[in-house]
Amino acid sequence: MFIDLPLDELRRYRPSVPEPPGFDAFWQRTLTETRTHDLDARFTATDAGLALLDTYDVEFAGFGGHPIRGWFLAPRGAAGPLPCVVQYLGYGGGRAHPHDWLLWPCAGLPTLVMDARGQSGPNRPGDTPDPVGAAHPGVPGKMTQGLLDPETYYYRRLFTDAVRAVEAAGVHPVVDPARIVVSGRSQGGACALAVAGLVPEVAGALIDVPFLTDVRRALEITKEEPYGELVRYFAGERLHIDRALATLDHVDGLNFAVRAQAPALFDTSLHDPITPPSTGFAAYHHYAGPKEQRVWRFNGHEGGGGHQRAEQLRFVRELFG
């Protein structure tokens, strides 16, 4: 069943932006502090059994100088500078294996896949620990880790890692740093949206069913994971709700959308109970740069699947001619 507003109302849905005081200063200071650490981007060639690709095990310094892992794949022997797609991961999984990321290098574009610190899963194992301990008790998962203070919140670290991934991709000799597109689905879509708002030099953004947008509404209409982690936390920590919501405002995609200028392609599904469609429409409507949206009427959190990938190939091809 449809779990949100009717489509005609979704096309008009434009909620207020929950911008906290000092939002720009908070993120400027975060990135400035992070950049005091040498990026130290390392690309170690590895044999992944992919005869037509050059494959590298990547490591660079993310938030706090912490080492972040990833993969870098490019067409074998490609001569740069070429456009590059930086990819971010959905919740609860890691960078997995090089052969899981063939779309963009098969289309002729190198790609950097950023591991998500502290996350792993049975089908998408990760390799990057999160050395920052919990600042206060929370429920299992990342959603409540450090939630009572923007300084300690998990997504401050993850979004900063995502910015540094763009910087790492840009130093590889085959990549044109002026033609980098960020891409992700769900949590990865949240990362792509955040980077589009934080890095004016980004050339494009592919934002699929983005998580962590219009968060206050999402918490009112869904208990699906991972928003369910917040719902369970609030059920017990009744006196900390307003403080926690103020932290979430610092990572809400709406605040990044109004600052983003790169051309973007959005993916929204009307049957999505995990990132309710109204939250995706809110991000799309507030996105300040040139934008397109594909709406999938009878799909859930999987979004447009292969059809959306085809749209993304078209979008990037047109973006770079």
Low-confidence spans: none
Rg from alpha-carbon coordinates = 18 Å
Tally of individual domains? 1
Strand order of the largest sheet: 1-2-3-5-4-6-7-8-9
Q: Please trace the helix and strand order, writing H or E for each element.
A: HHEEEEHEHEHEHHHHEHEH
Provide the CATH top-level class: Alpha Beta
Count helical runs. 11
**CATH architecture descriptor text:** 3-Layer(aba) Sandwich
Protein name: Acetylxylan esterase
Pfam families: AXE1
Organism: Streptomyces catenulae
InterPro entries: AB_hydrolase_fold, AXE1_dom, CE7
Write the layout of secondary structure elements.
Layout: H1 7-10, H2 23-34, E1 42-45, E2 53-61, E3 67-75, E4 82-88, H3 103-106, E5 111-114, H4 154-170, E6 175-185, H5 187-198, E7 204-208, H6 215-221, H7 227-236, H8 241-249, H9 253-257, E8 264-269, H10 277-286, E9 291-296, H11 305-320
Parallel strand pairs: 4-5, 4-6, 6-7, 7-8, 8-9
Antiparallel strand pairs: 1-2, 2-3, 3-5
Helix pairs in contact: 4-5
Write up what this structure looks like.
This protein has helices spanning 7-10, 23-34, 103-106, 154-170, 187-198, 215-221, 227-236, 241-249, 253-257, 277-286, 305-320; strands spanning 42-45, 53-61, 67-75, 82-88, 111-114, 175-185, 204-208, 264-269, 291-296. The chain is of the alpha/beta class and 321 residues long. It is globular and about 55 Å long.
